[in-house]
Design goal:
293 residues, alpha/beta, Arc Repressor Mutant, subunit A, D-Maltodextrin-Binding Protein, domain 2, 3 domains, two-stranded antiparallel ribbon
Length: 293
């Protein structure tokens, strides 16, 4: 059995598409398809059901996927323990991040790192969700809670604050609430409650017992845009809201505090490309830490 074939199968299984997997691995999609077929022939079983809109694991594929993940973990651990881990700052590193941090902070700054290391390819996935590092959905995850389970390495990246905001135009028309109780007479913007993937995102409970948003958006950036449009009052990241002069802080004594953590799987800790990205993230935050508090 060829380990490269197994590695390619894992990529297809995780993305659900041969084309998406080929892009992540940097190989031709036809070549990737042939390598997965070769693996199936070696195993004498069908691992994937291939359709025009993606791939689905067969029952045998599900069993082999779990075995292949154990193989991957052991392979990385063996490479690390024998010193045969890559020392080149090259290859692909995928960063999963909350959309506020990913879009408003990282997206405009990561280009500095790729200019330093032209052979390094970065993939930024700034979406409002959590990422499974054990399933390699991301190589590095920026989380808002420190993971307590799994073979993960975590370190605090930065603390940050959130507060209540409205647009100046909205406040001119509706008036500025002077108390938390007065917020009840204003339309409020918040997360879609059943899509909150972390208890730390339940900001509203720290402001008032029943936030009861009239406009729910499952994205921090979406909430910012809604508040900017004059749709009501929302709880926004201070480092994001300060970028927009039309936004006005409401009840400035109300401050919510959270932290970002950098997390990756311990079996990848000796990969030079991963360490380089982690150190760069720390560098960025140290340089601009003042914007988060």
């Amino acid at each position: 059995m060829n380990w490269d074939d197994v590695r390619m199968f894992l990529a297809v299984a995780r993305t659900g598409q041969i084309l998406a997997a080929s892009r992540r691995l940097g190989v031709n999609h036809a070549t990737l398809g042939r390598r997965v077929t070769a693996l199936e022939e070696d195993l004498r079983t069908r691992l994937l059901i291939r359709r025009t809109n993606g791939c689905e694991l067969t029952a045998e594929g599900e069993v082999f996927f779990r075995a292949a993940e154990r193989m991957e973990t052991e392979m990385l651990a063996a490479q690390a323990s024998t010193g045969r881990i890559d020392t080149a700052i090259a290859g692909t590193v995928r960063i999963g991040a909350p959309d506020g941090f990913g879009v408003s902070f990282l997206a405009s700054r990561l280009g500095r790192l790729t200019r330093r290391h032209p052979e390094l390819k970065l993939q930024l996935v700034p979406v409002p969700r959590s990422f499974s590092l054990s399933q390699r959905e991301a190589d590095i995850a920026i989380t808002i809670e420190r993971p307590e389970q799994g073979r993960l390495v975590s370190s605090k990246l930065t603390d940050y604050t959130l507060g209540l905001y409205a647009s100046g135009t909205y406040l001119d028309e509706a008036g500025t609430p002077g108390t938390v109780e007065a917020l009840k007479s204003h339309p409020r913007i918040g997360y879609v409650e059943d899509l909150i993937f972390s208890p730390s995102l339940n900001f509203t409970g720290e402001v008032m017992r029943d936030w009861d948003a009239s406009f729910e958006i499952s994205s921090a950036i979406g909430q910012t845009e809604a508040v900017r449009s004059g749709a009501g009052i929302g709880i926004l990241h201070d480092y994001v809201a300060r970028q927009y002069p039309e936004l006005v802080r409401v009840l400035p004594e109300t401050v919510i505090r959270r932290s970002y953590w950098t997390t990756y799987h311990e079996t990848t800790r000796d990969l030079m490309r991963l360490r380089t990205v982690v150190e760069f993230l720390k560098e960025l935050v140290e340089e601009e830490g003042h914007i988060f508090v």
